[in-house]
């Protein structure tokens, strides 16, 4: 991959102390059992509960769900690992994965809720009056869910390896089977309730690691989030020399892709459909950003502690001789930091349990959005418009099972690190979906032809970038302009330009569609089940543009 963090995925077993650990195992098993119980208690049988939790989730609970949805293995494990492996370049991930929420808060959260659909492809199909656009949106959603989930499955497998001492493949299959089991039962309602529980588990585990490792190692006292700065001068050039292992262009491209990819991720945007109205959607975004910030503020500190502890350990000479720790060790730097601090095994197990909770929470959101794309957007809206609710839920559950199997197999030999895999999904969302959401909500003259042209070009750019970086390199120049991990920096403006240009030279969308767009910006509150389409087609007055 054209990125500074490319490393071997191999793991040094001795450093991790891979063995069965009774107390951590009990903690993890109890946590997984809790998720299954919550999923069963909140199981659903209708599409409203399956896809949008009956639009009944409050602002703080939804904020916690946003946080858990977001605190994936890439955040809990991979973010610190990226910083540990690449220093300043890794900060692009912290900036990108937080700044995007400000764009969401200002431009998309409330407007998406007012539009009032079930899924991101639903928005694309209805806004642009096109089943082809709906299908492209669904395909993109499934691709995002697949790429993103492989990273989560890898994270679950690595942490399970530490706790249970068995082989990596077995842990991937077991963890994914449990995730699929409770999702097929619960749908979005149970997933949301579980996400609130998962957030509490993961944030307690992560903060405990930051504070206890910092204190016991003599690195920090009260605020490890800022006190770790003293370590930078003592660590290797990856931390002390900005962009030592990457170009400034790649840093900017990565940050850009992550900022605007945040605004295009279907499993993030669907959180705004689960609340009662646009006011709660805005409040949820603020709460979500706060909950996310708590973890991200401490990730660089834990990475610095982990690198220093690893360097000073018995594995330090190997680390120095081979030019750095492997990708596998980087992905587990959070657990390694606790392990090398000689903390009690049960404490390291608590940290590991937080990593599993983070991975499962995100996988839940991804699988729900992917299953809704297949069941609601492809099967019901395109293939079988007369499908009953029971048939839709059955297709959705079958999709979760199939996707779980494909992700599990791919995660047995993943092509990149956890953070890298997730960043690919962000790049895709930023190129293909974000321009459609932004223009669809803020420029009423965006039409079907423009949207189709933009989405096709965006998909082509992203697929070519991934093939060039990960599968069959065909052009150094293309890789420099469109690095897979940061292809949106150049790709997203191209998609915007093509969508606008084609829309201008073709027929304007129907007046009814324009009224829907205007209604998304109305100051008048809407009821729980009401959508912009309902108001626009009821013959009521159309609010003025903002």
TrEMBL record:
PROSITE patterns: NA_SOLUT_SYMP_3 (PS50283)
One Pfam family recorded for the sequence: SSF
Family annotation (InterPro entries): Na/Glc_symporter_sf (IPR038377), Na/solute_symporter (IPR001734), Na/solute_symporter_VC_2705 (IPR019899), Sodium:Solute_Symporter (IPR050277)
Primary residence: membrane
Topology within the bilayer: Multi-pass membrane protein
Residue ranges of the TM segments: 23-42, 63-85, 91-110, 131-148, 168-185, 197-219, 248-274, 286-307, 346-374, 394-412, 424-443, 450-472, 484-506
Family stated for the protein in its record: Belongs to the sodium:solute symporter (SSF) (TC 2.A.21) family.
Annotated protein name in UniProt: VC_2705 family sodium/solute symporter
Organism: Halolamina salina
């Amino acid at each position: 991959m054209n990125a500074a963090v490319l490393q071997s995925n191999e793991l040094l077993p001795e450093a991790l102390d891979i063995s069965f650990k009774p107390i951590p195992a009990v903690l993890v098993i109890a946590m997984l059992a809790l998720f299954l119980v919550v999923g069963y208690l909140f199981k659903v049988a209708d599409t409203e509960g399956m896809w949008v939790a009956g639009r009944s989730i409050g602002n703080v609970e939804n904020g916690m769900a946003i946080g858990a949805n977001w605190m994936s293995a890439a955040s809990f494990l991979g973010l610190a690992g990226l910083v540990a492996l690449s220093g300043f370049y890794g900060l692009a991930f912290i900036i990108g994965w937080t700044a995007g929420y400000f764009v969401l808060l200002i431009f998309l959260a409330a407007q998406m809720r007012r539009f009032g659909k079930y899924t991101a492809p639903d928005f694309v199909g209805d806004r642009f009056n096109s089943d082809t656009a709906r299908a492209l949106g669904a395909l993109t959603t499934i691709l995002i869910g697949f790429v993103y989930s492989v990273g989560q499955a890898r994270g679950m497998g690595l942490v399970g390896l530490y706790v249970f001492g068995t082989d990596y493949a077995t842990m991937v299959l077991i963890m994914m089977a449990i995730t699929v089991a409770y999702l097929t039962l619960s749908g979005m309602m149970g997933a949301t309730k579980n996400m609130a529980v998962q957030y509490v588990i993961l944030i307690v585990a992560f903060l405990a690691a930051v504070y206890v490792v910092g204190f016991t190692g003599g690195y920090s006292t009260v605020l490890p989030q800022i006190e770790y700065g003293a370590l930078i001068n003592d660590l290797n050039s990856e931390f002390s020399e900005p962009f030592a292992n990457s170009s400034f262009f790649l840093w900017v491209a990565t940050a850009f892709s992550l900022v605007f990819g945040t605004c295009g991720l279907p499993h993030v945007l669907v959180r705004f459909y689960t609340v009662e109205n646009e006011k709660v959607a805005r409040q949820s975004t603020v709460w979500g950003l706060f909950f996310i910030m708590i973890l991200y503020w401490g990730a660089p500190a834990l990475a610095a502690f982990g690198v220093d502890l690893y360097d000073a350990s018995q594995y330090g000479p190997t680390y120095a001789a081979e030019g750095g720790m492997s990708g596998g060790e980087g992905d587990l730097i959070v657990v390694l930091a606790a392990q090398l601090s000689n903390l009690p095994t049960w404490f390291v197990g608590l940290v590991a349990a937080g990593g599993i909770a983070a991975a499962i929470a995100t996988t839940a959101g991804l699988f729900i959005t992917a299953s809704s794309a297949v069941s609601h957007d492809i099967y019901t809206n395109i293939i079988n418009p007369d499908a009953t609710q029971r048939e839709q839920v059955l297709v959705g559950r079958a999709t979760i099972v199939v996707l779980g199997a494909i992700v599990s197999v791919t995660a047995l030999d993943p092509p990149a690190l956890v953070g890298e895999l997730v960043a690919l999904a962000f790049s895709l969302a930023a190129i293909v979906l974000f321009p459609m959401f932004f223009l669809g909500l803020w420029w009423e003259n965006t039409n079907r032809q423009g949207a189709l042209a933009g989405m096709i070009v965006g998909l082509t750019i992203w697929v070519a970038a991934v093939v060039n970086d990960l599968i069959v390199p065909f052009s150094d120049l293309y890789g420099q302009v469109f690095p897979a991990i940061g292809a949106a920096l150049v790709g997203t403006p191209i998609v915007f330009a093509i969508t606008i240009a084609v829309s201008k030279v073709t027929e304007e969308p129907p007046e009814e569609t324009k009224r829907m767009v205007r209604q998304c910006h109305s100051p008048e509150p809407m009821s729980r089940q009401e959508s912009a389409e309902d108001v626009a087609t009821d013959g009521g007055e159309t609010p003025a543009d903002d």
